[in-house]
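On clarity, I found the account of how folds are encoded harder to follow than it need be. Since the whole study asks how a given chain folds, the encoding of that fold should be made plain. For illustration, here is how one protein appears when written out as sequence plus structure tokens:

:::
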Amino acid sequence: MFFRSLLTLLLSLSASLFAADKPNLLLILADDMGYGDLSCYGSKQVPTPNLDKLAANGVRCTDGYVSASVCAPSRAGLLTGRYQNRFGFEHNLSHPKYMKDEHVGIDLKQPLISNKLKDAGYTTGIIGKWHLGEAIPEFHPNQRGFDHFFGMLGGGHSYWPTVEKNKLTLNGEKIKEVRTPYLTDWFTLEANDFIERNSKAEKPWFLYLSYNTPHSPMQAKDEDLAKFPHIKDKTRRIYCAMQHNMDTNIGTIVSKLEELGQLENTLIVFLSDNGGSVEVSHAINAPCRGGKGSNLEGGLRIPTIYSWPGTLPKGTTYSQPIISLDILPTFLAAAGAPAPEAQPLGTSYKKAKDIATATDGVNLLPYFKGEKTEPPHENLFWRMTLRAKSVRSGDWKLLDPAHGEPQLYNLKDDPSELNNLAASNPTKLAELRSKLVTWEGSLESNPHWISAPTWYKYNKKLNERKFMLIQPEKDDERDFWSFDSLKEHITN
């Protein structure tokens, strides 16, 4: 009995030491948040002191991208570390009659970051929005490497759930009571419970906190709305209140980590799943042109913050292009897990063993620490078939919309993409087209489903419409959002 107790103690100490060598990993995702809607990214209307503090204590990335300009494919890329185009998840989820259930989600041969971290000894959890498939049980988060899941499987939800009307489940079981009235607050309570429960355990933890804020429906608490009486546009006022609420909630999570003595042992990444919706939520992506659904910068470039006190430099601004696909290899490196292999441009992987170990991302830790000074990526690619495709290579970007002429921009000189250089620089245009064709030709799958035809017309309209390219003042009453009133780019 003595030796059994001694062995148990030794194993416990060994596990504790093993866990101490591995940081906790917290991935916080906003939904449809504008590039210019954090005060640390220039907003004059939305104070976000908690996210500002996170940025001040870590690395704020000016040229952070996601792999798609709409929710579901962006999330598929985020959780796999690979361009979602490779496994056919190119458009927002739909289920055509001809499509088999097992194809409407992330390919089951493709492991997620949760699978890889679970293999590395982590307890894994997701709280919030899934939106990556629910047609078969195997697509459920609990079957994709997540030990714990609380949230909704689909893409949207009312912020005022009731017991009778909600889409929320806890590890596959319908919820039986409403813990707190407002959904963003509820997700935060669940996140803090997960953190506290697992911080007392012997294993490190990974939590994917997938807020649906500030995605529609536009619903905010009265006390949050009361902080923005100076904003006359009703939709914009609600959006700002939702942003404020999310920032406050993130502050409680950081406070919980501090209370538990876990903040310096936690790598936190915050970003949005795509650019803000200018029409629906009245987000602001300034100085980027475009918005959600567009391959202009306003649809793809998003605020990205990495914070790991004591390990990453404090108060750093990083301006090289990075992408959400980098999170998987960065987290694995922090966890001391086997590094995935970079998939070279033009290479096609079809064998399960290659798919399981490949990534299009890069471990960013040595770049943030200054140990590597070259750009992490030579090229970044995007495509939504019949809508648009694009490539960024250094400072240059080619945007090839489905319903218009090619557009070539130098983002260093023209971050708002106003000056199309395609006609005056045919050599650069041909160079980037060649890279885009090489990438497209190496994709392992065609899209498994495609957006409804109505989106093609909308995408053309979105690509051609005018945008405001400056941050409005705190009480600016101009209409920056409607198609009818915004006849030209507002730059002053």
In short: The chain has one domain: 22-378.
